[in-house]
Structures
1.
Amino acid sequence: MEWETVIGLEVHAQLLTKSKLFSGSSTQFGAQPNTQACAVDIALPGVLPVMNLEAARMAVKFGLAVGATVNRRSVFARKNYFYPDLPKGYQISQYELPVVQLGRLMIDVDGMKKEIGITRAHLEEDAGKSLHEAFEGLTGIDLNRAGTPLLEIVSEPDMRSAKEAVTYLKKLHVLVRYLGICDGNMQEGSFRCDANVSVRPKGQHAFGTRAELKNINSFRFVEKAIDYEVARQVELIESGGKVVQETRLYDSQSNETRSMRSKEEAHDYRYFPDPDLLPLELDEQFIKEAALGLPELPDAKRERFVREYGLSAYDAEVLTGSREMADYYEAAAAMVPGQAKLAANWIIGDLSGYLNRDSLGIGDAPVTSAMLAGLVCRIADSTISGKIAKDVFDAMWNGEGDADAVIGKKGLRQITDESAIERIIDEVMARNPKQLEQYRSGQDKLFGFFVGQVMKATQGKANPAQVNESLRKKLGDKPA
Amino acid sequence: MSLYRSTLAGLYKLLKKKEISSQELTQVYLDRIEAHSDLNAFVTVDRTRALAQAQAADARLHAGTGTPLTGIPLAQKDIFCTEGLLTTCGSRMLANFVAPYDATVISRFNDAGSVLLGKTNMDEFAMGSSNETSFFGPVLNPWDRRCVPGGSSGGSAAAVAACLAPAATGTDTGGSIRQPAALSGITGLKPSYGRVSRFGMIAFASSLDQAGPMTRSAEDAALMLNVMAGFDPRDSTSVDRPVPDYTRTLDEPLAGLRIGLPREYFGHGLAAEVGRAIEAALEQYRRLGAKTVDVSLPNSGLAIPCYYVLAPAEASSNLARYDGVRYGYRAPEYADLWELYSKTRAQGFGAEVKRRIMIGTYALSAGYYDAYYLKAQKLRRLISADFASAFEHCDVIMGPTSPGTAFEFGSRSGDPVAMYLSDIYTISVNLAGLPGMSVPAGFDSGNRPIGLQIIGRYFDEAKLLNVAHRFQQVTDWHLRVPEGF
């Protein structure tokens, strides 16, 4: 039988507010345990939550960016369960009335466009962390994260493959960073994903029973976990079994999912409206101001890059992968009129390679957009060859100054003087009589050898096109 | 008249004229608290701290920067967090809890320069109407030691009634200021929901809890409310409305005042002696120029079932934080996390608290939520609407505060519903978020006090205080002090 996969994702994006969702504590990552937890965060008797409006502003920005309805009135509810890193014994979340509803995101998989529905996005507070490793037989509780604002973004079950799911997730990841509402750091848990996965016979309308996959906190794991889970479900059904509704944990070591708790064991969260908080009321003005704060969104920017700079769809996609990358590119492109494509190649190629090698963000690159533009200009005006440019780039990366300084200091200026090139060719021919003879006796493939020798003799500085031309001329006047 | 029987207004004059110092005054009350410790009105008394505060107050009075409450010793219900001082909420769960911060109510009194005598006993987590659920034992009613003082603010009520403090604070979720005020013969005011900050006040049922003064007179209640009331950015449910000077309108004449009498408050279940006392009080009001009109609160019979769904539902969640993990009581022995939770909570909470957590958990459970919680919310709106219609015909509503007078220890503790009925006239006021007062209005044949309840429009505390004050100008019920005090 042919099976169809159905996937919906729940993403928790940690919002980049300075303070927590309901208290004034800092949200900074990595502080000493429990140094960023105030009376409200540790749920002392008598404390009360006070809503951080900055988090609402960020949620509204997201809502507007995905074309969703921003509810003028949303309600905070308590989700009740006991756990040591949940100090109040309940999490404040939004349940029946979320701040954002009914949005959509377009994804592009193998050239096919597809719309993924966003059911809702709601504000909620994060829990603390239980630390099981560092304490012999004990569990440590760190409440620094407790109360940090999260935007939970719930998609419709619109995805039909792990690839679509990852594409959607990446798209969302780019978007929240564009909006400046989340740093997207998956290692630190600022961008987390759960996947609801089910299968059904192709053509069947009703959904199959789903499993919720947790702990899939990298793009790679999302794909692998879903693929594993789909295979497990199909195999189970085909061998006469039944998928049960449950929560499953993905183990990246063994690349499998394991049952965490069944539907019967699921908590009854006893949601009810939080009586300590008034409903969140957002007026027209608030939403308008949030709209004014919206940057150019990734899709619009990508299309503009194709249009304005004549880039391929692929290049435009890569260069708009983050706002910083796009800004870097636009700054460089503006300084090299007519060479936008060349600038793009350098950013996608060498610059990205160096950034990856050194684990740097583009904002920390030692080669600034102005320096990169300077390099591109020297290639364009034939001062240096593309090959030499790589050395210049490396020198710039190592702090040896801008392109002109490096070229000047190292004498890398390209040799374009025809007589100079011919003189070098003569020398090379004189030094290699054997090869010359072989070439002239018909071994054409030795042409490359001579090019290499000339380039070597000029430390790569000779203009390659001119070398070719002159060599052909010199070698060509062999006896018939 | 003895100094300790004075009202706040009287003490203010003495302090201002330097006829007595705050330190002397504080000493008087501290000695009385000690002499009458058998009442069990206080959980914590910190003499050193109180006298230090009094000394600071004297300096302030001397410098002429005092307020009407500077140097006045007060008792605070042990539900308000007080920095560096035990805050138990009447529970074993918090019997070792020293709060690291002050509730807004406490810091407002600190700013005013008043002196904290101690923390008063109360029903555990404010759940009770007799003060019998306190982990620290029951409080005796100064009028009759065989009887309860009412609850949950029983310690505050007894302390003021026995002149162990000139005034105290209480909190009222379903009647916890008004009912003990009535049963102990003092004046108590529950302000409108949102008038006084709940920050630092340990939560029982967040949508109903409200702090207020418990005093010897309406004028004193006005002086206290002047300090307590006001917007607090740390409490999202506190209301940002200007606070009037509640003492300024106390003497307004009552001519033309329309008093609504809800027929539901004078029917079955009301003790005859209480009914007669209320009738006499109403007669007094008529002589003051007020007229009475019949009104109806048709849904008031549903107030108790409505309340006993909503309040426990909120409580079940509010009390989830007492898990033995971070502070408070922790069971000494446990095998794993779940045992830590269950043993801590089984041992740390008393029977009434556990009963309400169970009821609340049930009412919020999947499959029951609509039938109980949502239905109760609908009833709550109906009860509010009843008051709104009644107030179209009257300016205040009056009736008994409680159906009977102080009852004997143990007489109702085995029957929760009988206990709950003690609050039948007060609960609907909390559900509607309205201000309500209890003022002394007589005694039964056993010399146990009777309270008259006055209910006002939303944020109409000034009117309530005015109406109560005028009554107290022509009666002396509120000036009576139990024998031996």
2.
Amino acid sequence: MQDKTHSSYKQLEQRSKYTNMFLRWFLYFVLIVFAFYFIFPLYVMVVTSLKTMEEIRQGTLLTWPSGLNFDSWAVAWGGRGYGAGDTFLKPYFWNSIKMVVPAVFFSTFIGAMTGYVLTKWRFKGDQWVFLFLLFGCFIPFQAILLPMARTLGVLGISNSVVGLVLVHTVYGIPFTTLFFRNYYVSVPTELVKAARIDGAGFFKIFFKILLPISAPIIVVTVIWQFTQIWNDFLFGSTFSFGEAAPIQVALNNMVLSSTSVKEYNVDMASAIIAGIPTLIVYVLAGKYFIRGLTSGAVKG
Amino acid sequence: MKTLKIDELSKNFGTTEVLRKINLEIDEGNFLVLLGPSGCGKSTLLNIIAGLETINEGNVYIDDYNVSKVEPKDRNIAMVFQSYALYPSMNVRENMIFGLKQAKVSKEKIEEQLQKVSKFLQVDALLERKPSQLSGGQRQRVAIGRALVREPRIFLFDEPLSNLDAKLRVEMRREIKKLHQQLKTTVVYVTHDQTEAMSLGTNIAIMNHGVIQQNDTPENIYNKPSNTFVADFIGSPSMNLIKGNLKQSSNQISFIANGSNFEIPINGYDLKEKSNLEDKEVFFGIRPEHIFFKKSNEGDFEINLRADLSEYIGHEQIMTFDYENQEVLAKFPSTIKIELSKNTKLYFDLTQISLFDAKTEERI
């Protein structure tokens, strides 16, 4: 041991205090920079959507709008009211809702079922089934476009919301199964044994015992599936067109197909409208999201 | 009529043999403990009795009725698990009556059973609570209550005390014992804790590698272990097994430890087979608590051994002695002072010894 005098300890104490203070301020600085970086595009979008075309031409990206002018939002949602060539989001928004609600429901439910079977009703070769399901998470979606188009054609549901529901359900199952399997692995199997002795069967155990304690993972899965399906462009643009298209496809058509002047304010409003539902879902259920993601790993 | 009978039962998981030709019988009202190290197959056996595992060979009978292919819920059994396995989303009331509801028992009967059992177990004040709001001991009691309301023929316990802390474990052990005294229901209880097994069981079946080594009363398990595994497994520290040979002369049988020429007379030992004893290789078994520092019985045999090591544990001390390069452990009151590295006079209680064939490791 070095022989340190009382005063040198004082010095060391001071030094560590300054180092800590510096690091703390540095941390805040970095966080603030990143916060700006992420919020900036949203700011531009919101501000631009509230300006008139005149204002956009004269000011810069950052200029504050002269007033709260929701005209471009109305145009983006409901159109201008004249016939052909007027694309607006309202019908496609409802298309997306009609697609996303059943697709999220079915993929989550089926994922919960498969996760339940793979953990609590083990059978010979179940690891292989799980492995192949996991494979589905890594298949690039471009690879299955042609076979899927053929399948939808044979089933007679191509270019329809029903077809998109099927596609999204099928390609959601690998992810939802993974979520539920990892969650149910941490649920003691003795619960299932106890319920079997009590006389509950396969479905009763699922609905009465496991599903009531699955809220965290259901929230995670719903957020994940909702975001994926709502934001999907590839499947939407491939398997549907015209009337049956979901909102992301309509947004693309709206922004890219304008013939005359680019209406940035309408474009921005449309983009925000298309993004709002996922935001709502995340804000409502977000606090469960992190909890659910980690709940499989750490027993609480 | 046997309440439970297991007949030539075998079980494999793939190519691993978990249980081999198990035979067991329990009379009404008995408390059978399945005891063994982890991986010996005791929990699998319990799951098979419950009907949660399938059987490869053999049969299980409850009240002389072959239940081998009967569903768990129809076997008239109830089980208490190590993790309690209370349904997390249900409160205590719902947990306890879940089974009865499944069995479509009438509402009045359910309520009556619930009141009776919850009063009996003193959980009647907790009926509206969720399992997460209960302490470990309360959860344990509710888990037992859930089993009790069904009025089963056989109670199955799967290491129910392993999750509790040491103090609570001793308390709950006594409660289970009391419960059995009052209800007199047949119990099969799995544990790896020999104190639990000894204090609770009317019968103990010691298992190792999927085979029952000895199924006997606690007294016989302790005093007359049927092989070296049981001798070694029961007792803490376990029985000293000193290797050596037997020597037979006209009317005298004695034991000579390897490397020694000192004879220990064992005339008083009740041999199963009295022939072919000369030069037989054996283990001489004596428990640490049957070695004394002062002569306490007339028949005690005096022997001089070197003290090598002393472990002080409060109410007693465990001394290690050297007997011709074989370790011999003895348990003494901690008040006795013994000098290390010196020969000490000790007394073996020869009425308490066990002898095992060194080859077969079976009691002779």
